[in-house]
Design goal:
The complex is a heterodimer of chains A (about 500) and B (about 220).
Chain A: H1 3-8, H2 10-77, E1 84-90, E2 95-98, E3 113-119, E4 128-137, E5 141-148, H3 150-200, H4 216-265, H5 270-302, E6 310-313, H6 314-331, E7 335-340, E8 345-348, H7 350-367, E9 373-381, E10 384-390, H8 423-433, E11 437-442, E12 447-454, H9 461-470
Parallel strand pairs in A: 7-9
Antiparallel strand pairs in A: 1-2, 1-5, 3-4, 4-5, 6-8, 9-10, 10-12, 11-12
Chain B: E1 2-6, H1 10-22, E2 26-30, H2 33-42, E3 47-51, H3 59-68, E4 75-79, H4 84-92, E5 97-100, H5 105-120, E6 127-130, E7 133-136, E8 141-144, E9 147-149, H6 153-164, E10 169-171, H7 172-180, H8 190-202, E11 211-214, E12 218-221
Parallel strand pairs in B: 1-2, 1-3, 3-4, 4-5
Antiparallel strand pairs in B: 6-7, 7-8, 8-9, 10-12, 11-12
Helix pairs in contact in B: 2-3, 6-7
The chains are: A alpha+beta (about 500), B alpha/beta (about 220).
């Protein structure tokens, strides 16, 4: 990462802002610590001075001025290490005893404290500093007891440098941290960016890599990948539809065209023209039907019609479908057995659900041998509905059941029966649209197609209340019927 | 009967016009939305066939504007957009029927005939009669001559729809939409079986059949000659 892009990195900017706030806070705390330490050292020195004065005053009270002079001399000679300052002078400030060579010129404050300049001899490192002392006036003498401030200065500067040092160390570490953090995060974001570039370039099989740590980035990657899977599946679906159209609509179109060509080649005759045209129309109708079925599947698969979902009474729909198909079954000598549980409702697309049900019944009737029976059952299984259509026809071999749900798939044996090979794929698409599935089972003998649909309520709240007032119990048998506007 | 066709595809418009002319209508073609609206608003047509997607002014706005001016002629939408949502939009916009492209001409013709009849007769009749076949909506009874005929509820509804459209072709899709209230595409002859059951009951034991099959189109209930 180049320095410019580093500064443009949002993460690095955040780290810098954080670093500034942190630095200011540490500085503030340091200043408080420094001030408190300075005060406490000063107070300690003053307390020491007061204690010494108390001691000297005691000496004076017991032994008079000679005692005081002797005490001061003793303390002054032993004072080197403890930095004590002592001076006893007469009223004209002539030195009587002590380790200062003259009375300081600086003025004392009201409480008798004075801060004064001190010159140090070369033996003690030289230089100047300040002394802090308290002045007492006695009977014919002045007494100064103090302490030099080199200790306090040393403590102060030690604290100060410690603080400055640690602040510098903190900033350095934090700066490195910020660079590291922004690089680490950028790497992961760059990975996502790189993947999306490749996808934009046309490689839809690319997936965002996950680190396996299960963090936010992994969750984001997982969601993006799920989205990509869905898009890839949709595109594959579209591709399959166009392939299907190319393969399975081209041949009937070619047939239609050659029939017309042949009719034109024959000697002109109104009757043979009519026959050719009628056959052409019926072929065109069949093509349209196939086309419509393909569109319905595409519509169901796109998932878009979910916004058309309404409360659908599956029980009433199943009864309607049975009623619609019963005469057809009877004509073929089949018995249609209907076992429908009451009051099974779900959120769905009523037209597509009915179309799916009708396709299953169409198939069952088409493939049933004469005298057989077809069973239509609808039951509730916990939070799911199971809608099953069972026949006693030839069934589908187990190995081919998956493929039977694909578009245009037809068993070799059924090539002669009419049909587009789209019926079951529409049922499968409708099942997927409703988060359900279609299972093809062995009915021994025959086929049992089970449409398994969850009864979950996915509608937004507003729609739910609206439903409650219109569809709830006012029209209990509304079934799969379209709303009045949709019917024409 | 004057029919306005608003359709930008000249070939489609031409073949609809030709078909209508042969069926005894006088069609006029407009090829864009604005022209269509102008003609529909200024001249007296008995019915309009309007494409949903038109240059100049789209079909939906055309119909909404036309209804806004108080014109009440029946309107059929033709559209390549066949989803339920689009149908609902079209019908709410003021159209009386909605036909999805591609369609069979016989389907269009049958719907036009039904719409034109709807304009002239009231749907409030409770006693319907075709030849010697009578249907009473109040007592829900059917008789032919002096012989009462016992019909299932669904057969009764089919017959009622056919009788209300006496003399006109009724297609299978129209029956599914109007009698069953479902809009779907049956792969089998499911409607035909219901019709043949009905035919058994109203025609079988009588000399003159009333219910006729129109090849390639649908069914027609007709007064005996």
């Amino acid at each position: 990462m180049s320095p410019t892009s580093l500064f443009r990195s949002r993460i690095f900017q955040f780290a810098l802002i954080y670093l500034c706030l942190f630095g200011v806070t540490v500085g503030l705390i340091g200043w408080i610590v420094f001030d408190v330490a300075k005060e406490s050292v000063s107070r300690q020195i003053e307390a020491t001075i007061d204690a010494e004065i108390t001691g000297l005053v005691e000496q004076y009270n017991q032994r008079g001025l000679p005692g005081l002079v002797e005490a001061i001399r003793r303390r002054a000679t032993s004072a080197d290490g403890s930095r004590g300052l002592y001076l006893l002078a007469d009223k004209r400030n002539r030195v009587l005893a002590g380790n200062l060579d003259r009375w300081p010129d600086e003025r004392t404050d009201a409480a008798g404290w004075v801060t004064f300049r001190l010159e140090f001899p070369e033996s003690e490192g030289g230089g100047t500093n300040f002394g802090r002392a308290r002045v007492l006036s006695g009977d014919g003498f002045n007494l100064l007891v103090g302490h030099d401030e080199r200790e306090r200065t040393w403590v102060q500067s030690t604290i100060l440098w410690t603080l400055v040092g640690s602040l510098a160390a903190t900033v350095t570490v934090a700066l490195f941290g910020a660079v590291f953090m922004s690089r680490a995060l950028s790497r992961r974001i760059d990975a996502i960016t790189a993947t999306s570039r490749e996808i934009m370039a046309g490689d839809l099989s690319q997936r965002v890599p996950a680190s396996g740590r299960g963090d936010e980035f992994d969750r984001l990657a997982a969601n993006l990948n799920a989205m990509l899977d869905r898009i890839e599946a949709l595109i594959a679906g579209i591709k399959q539809v166009s392939d299907n159209i190319a393969h399975d609509l081209r041949s009937p179109l070619a047939r239609l065209r050659s029939r017309l060509e042949v009719a034109l080649m024959e000697p002109p005759d109104a009757e043979s023209y009519r026959v050719a045209l009628e056959k052409t129309i019926s072929e065109a109708d069949h093509l349209l039907q196939t086309f419509n079925a393909l569109l319905s599947i595409a519509q169901a698969e796109a998932g878009a019609p979910r916004r058309n979902f309404t409360q659908v009474d599956l029980s009433a729909g199943a009864r309607d479908a049975a009623e619609l198909y019963e005469p057809l079954a009877e004509e073929k000598g089949l018995s249609l057995i209907v076992e429908v549980a009451e009051g099974i409702r779900l959120q769905g697309d009523q037209h597509l659900l009915f179309q799916a049900l009708v396709n299953l019944l169409d198939n069952a009737i088409k493939f049933s041998p004469e005298g057989g029976s077809i069973t239509l059952t609808l039951r509730r299984q916990g939070a799911r509905a199971a809608l099953a259509v069972a026949d006693q026809g030839p069934g589908i071999p187990e190995a081919l059941r998956e493929r039977a749900l694909e578009r245009f798939f037809r068993l070799e044996e059924s090539r002669s029966t009419p049909g587009s090979g789209l019926g079951l794929s529409l049922v499968a698409a409708v099942a997927r649209l409703h988060d359900g599935r279609i299972a093809l089972e062995d009915n021994r003998p025959g086929l049992r197609a089970v449409l398994d649909l969850p009864l979950n309520d996915r509608q937004p709240k507003a729609a739910r209340t609206r439903r409650a007032s219109t569809a709830a119990d006012a029209q209990p048998a509304a079934g799969l019927k379209p709303s009045s506007e949709a019917a024409s | 009967m004057r029919v306005l066709i608003v359709e930008d595809d000249k070939e489609t418009a031409g073949y609809i016009a030709k078909g209508l002319k042969e069926s005894g209508y006088s069609p006029t073609v407009a090829t864009d939305g604005k022209e269509g609206l102008l003609m529909a608003a200024s001249e007296d047509f008995d019915l309009a066939i309007v494409d949903r997607m038109l240059p100049g002014l789209d079909g939906l706005s055309l119909v909404e504007t036309l209804r806004g001016t108080g014109k009440e002629l029946p309107i059929v939408f033709l559209s390549a957009m066949g989803s339920v949502e689009e149908r609902v939009k079209g019908l709410r916009g003021g159209a009386d029927d909605y036909l999805v492209k591609p369609f069979a001409f016989s389907e269009l013709l049958a719907r036009i005939e039904v719409l034109l009849r709807r304009g002239s007769a009231s749907g409030a009749e409770t006693h319907l009669r075709v030849g010697d076949l009578e249907l009473d909506l109040l007592s829900r009874s059917v008789r032919r001559g002096d012989k009462p005929i016992d019909l299932q509820p669904r057969e009764f509804k089919i017959l009622e729809y056919l009788m209300r459209n006496t003399g006109r072709v009724v297609t299978r899709v129209m029956l599914l939409e109007n009698v069953w209230d479902y809009h779907f595409d049956p792969q089998t002859n499911v409607v035909d079986v219901h019709i043949s059951r009905l035919r058994q009951k109203i025609d079988k034991d009588f000399d003159k059949p009333l219910l006729h099959t129109v090849r390639g189109a649908g069914y027609r209930l007709r007064e005996p000659d």
